[in-house]
Amino acid sequence: MGTEQAVHSLNETMARVMAFNLSDVKQSYAKRYGLTAEQANLHERELKRFLALCAANPEACYGMFSDVDNLWHEFICHTPKYQAFCADIVGRFLHHIPTSSDAAKTIESDGPTPRQQTIADYKKYFGAMDPSLWRINDPLLADDCCSICTSDKKISLPSATSN
Fold this sequence. Notes:
mainly alpha
Protein backbone atom coordinates (compact mmCIF):
# COMPACT_ATOMS: atom_id res chain seq x y z
CA MET A 1 0.00 0.00 0.00
CA GLY A 2 1.45 3.38 -1.03
CA THR A 3 1.95 6.15 1.52
CA GLU A 4 -0.82 8.29 0.00
CA GLN A 5 -3.25 5.36 0.11
CA ALA A 6 -2.12 4.47 3.66
CA VAL A 7 -2.76 8.04 4.88
CA HIS A 8 -6.17 8.06 3.19
CA SER A 9 -7.00 4.73 4.78
CA LEU A 10 -5.82 5.92 8.19
CA ASN A 11 -7.84 9.15 7.84
CA GLU A 12 -10.98 7.18 6.98
CA THR A 13 -10.32 4.68 9.75
CA MET A 14 -9.55 7.44 12.24
CA ALA A 15 -12.83 9.21 11.44
CA ARG A 16 -14.79 5.99 12.02
CA VAL A 17 -12.85 5.18 15.21
CA MET A 18 -13.20 8.70 16.61
CA ALA A 19 -16.96 8.71 15.92
CA PHE A 20 -17.49 5.43 17.79
CA ASN A 21 -19.43 6.11 20.99
CA LEU A 22 -17.47 5.07 24.08
CA SER A 23 -19.34 7.26 26.56
CA ASP A 24 -20.51 4.38 28.79
CA VAL A 25 -17.06 2.73 28.69
CA LYS A 26 -15.36 6.03 29.45
CA GLN A 27 -17.77 6.80 32.31
CA SER A 28 -17.15 3.41 33.88
CA TYR A 29 -13.40 3.81 33.39
CA ALA A 30 -13.30 7.30 34.91
CA LYS A 31 -15.24 6.11 37.94
CA ARG A 32 -13.05 3.01 38.42
CA TYR A 33 -9.79 5.01 38.25
CA GLY A 34 -10.97 8.28 39.82
CA LEU A 35 -10.34 10.35 36.70
CA THR A 36 -11.81 13.70 35.79
CA ALA A 37 -13.88 13.99 32.62
CA GLU A 38 -10.98 15.84 30.99
CA GLN A 39 -8.50 13.07 31.84
CA ALA A 40 -10.90 10.39 30.60
CA ASN A 41 -11.38 12.32 27.34
CA LEU A 42 -7.60 12.47 26.80
CA HIS A 43 -7.29 8.74 27.45
CA GLU A 44 -10.14 8.07 25.02
CA ARG A 45 -8.40 10.12 22.32
CA GLU A 46 -5.14 8.24 22.82
CA LEU A 47 -6.81 4.83 22.84
CA LYS A 48 -8.70 5.67 19.67
CA ARG A 49 -5.50 6.87 17.98
CA PHE A 50 -3.76 3.63 18.97
CA LEU A 51 -6.66 1.47 17.79
CA ALA A 52 -6.85 3.44 14.52
CA LEU A 53 -3.18 2.63 13.87
CA CYS A 54 -3.89 -1.05 14.62
CA ALA A 55 -6.92 -1.03 12.33
CA ALA A 56 -5.32 0.83 9.43
CA ASN A 57 -2.04 -1.12 9.48
CA PRO A 58 -2.91 -4.78 10.05
CA GLU A 59 0.59 -6.00 9.18
CA ALA A 60 2.20 -3.81 11.86
CA CYS A 61 2.82 -4.84 15.44
CA TYR A 62 2.01 -2.04 17.90
CA GLY A 63 2.76 -1.86 21.59
CA MET A 64 0.69 -0.10 24.23
CA PHE A 65 2.96 1.46 26.84
CA SER A 66 0.61 3.80 28.60
CA ASP A 67 -1.88 3.74 31.41
CA VAL A 68 -4.39 4.16 28.57
CA ASP A 69 -4.09 0.36 28.36
CA ASN A 70 -6.50 0.31 31.32
CA LEU A 71 -9.13 1.99 29.13
CA TRP A 72 -8.54 -0.69 26.49
CA HIS A 73 -9.15 -3.30 29.23
CA GLU A 74 -12.37 -1.53 30.21
CA PHE A 75 -13.49 -1.44 26.58
CA ILE A 76 -12.83 -5.16 26.18
CA CYS A 77 -14.89 -5.86 29.32
CA HIS A 78 -17.83 -4.27 27.51
CA THR A 79 -17.71 -7.32 25.25
CA PRO A 80 -20.69 -6.65 22.95
CA LYS A 81 -19.51 -3.10 22.32
CA TYR A 82 -15.90 -4.18 21.70
CA GLN A 83 -17.05 -6.94 19.37
CA ALA A 84 -19.23 -4.46 17.43
CA PHE A 85 -16.34 -2.00 17.24
CA CYS A 86 -14.01 -4.65 15.83
CA ALA A 87 -16.58 -5.99 13.36
CA ASP A 88 -18.17 -2.73 12.21
CA ILE A 89 -15.31 -0.25 12.44
CA VAL A 90 -12.14 -2.30 12.05
CA GLY A 91 -13.40 -5.21 10.00
CA ARG A 92 -11.46 -7.75 12.05
CA PHE A 93 -10.93 -8.59 15.69
CA LEU A 94 -8.20 -6.56 17.41
CA HIS A 95 -6.53 -8.85 19.90
CA HIS A 96 -5.22 -7.47 23.17
CA ILE A 97 -2.14 -9.57 23.83
CA PRO A 98 -0.42 -9.05 27.21
CA THR A 99 3.33 -9.02 26.66
CA SER A 100 3.72 -11.58 29.43
CA SER A 101 1.55 -14.12 27.58
CA ASP A 102 2.70 -17.15 25.62
CA ALA A 103 1.05 -15.67 22.50
CA ALA A 104 3.24 -12.56 22.75
CA LYS A 105 6.35 -14.73 22.81
CA THR A 106 5.42 -16.19 19.41
CA ILE A 107 5.29 -12.85 17.60
CA GLU A 108 7.72 -12.81 14.72
CA SER A 109 10.27 -10.04 15.08
CA ASP A 110 11.46 -9.00 11.65
CA GLY A 111 11.53 -5.26 12.16
CA PRO A 112 11.12 -2.61 14.82
CA THR A 113 9.87 -3.58 18.26
CA PRO A 114 6.15 -2.99 18.93
CA ARG A 115 7.11 0.05 21.01
CA GLN A 116 9.34 1.48 18.24
CA GLN A 117 6.63 0.87 15.64
CA THR A 118 4.03 2.67 17.76
CA ILE A 119 6.27 5.68 18.37
CA ALA A 120 7.24 5.97 14.69
CA ASP A 121 3.72 5.66 13.28
CA TYR A 122 2.12 7.77 15.99
CA LYS A 123 4.60 10.57 15.26
CA LYS A 124 4.05 10.20 11.52
CA TYR A 125 0.26 10.52 11.74
CA PHE A 126 -0.46 12.44 14.94
CA GLY A 127 2.72 14.29 15.92
CA ALA A 128 4.63 13.97 19.16
CA MET A 129 3.30 11.70 21.89
CA ASP A 130 2.30 13.33 25.16
CA PRO A 131 4.86 12.09 27.73
CA SER A 132 2.28 12.55 30.50
CA LEU A 133 0.15 9.87 28.80
CA TRP A 134 2.81 7.67 27.17
CA ARG A 135 5.91 6.31 28.92
CA ILE A 136 8.36 7.45 26.26
CA ASN A 137 11.12 9.13 28.27
CA ASP A 138 12.10 6.37 30.69
CA PRO A 139 15.19 4.56 29.36
CA LEU A 140 14.48 1.62 31.68
CA LEU A 141 11.27 1.04 29.77
CA ALA A 142 12.87 1.18 26.31
CA ASP A 143 11.10 -1.92 25.02
CA ASP A 144 8.46 -2.33 27.69
CA CYS A 145 4.84 -2.58 26.59
CA CYS A 146 1.75 -3.58 28.55
CA SER A 147 0.13 -5.25 25.58
CA ILE A 148 0.42 -5.71 21.85
CA CYS A 149 -2.01 -5.35 18.98
CA THR A 150 -1.01 -7.20 15.83
CA SER A 151 -2.28 -9.25 12.93
CA ASP A 152 -3.39 -12.84 13.52
CA LYS A 153 -0.70 -13.78 11.00
CA LYS A 154 2.04 -12.74 13.42
CA ILE A 155 0.90 -14.71 16.44
CA SER A 156 0.25 -18.33 17.23
CA LEU A 157 -3.14 -18.43 18.83
CA PRO A 158 -3.70 -21.50 21.03
CA SER A 159 -6.19 -24.00 19.71
CA ALA A 160 -9.39 -24.71 21.61
CA THR A 161 -8.03 -28.12 22.62
CA SER A 162 -4.71 -26.84 24.02
CA ASN A 163 -4.09 -27.32 27.72
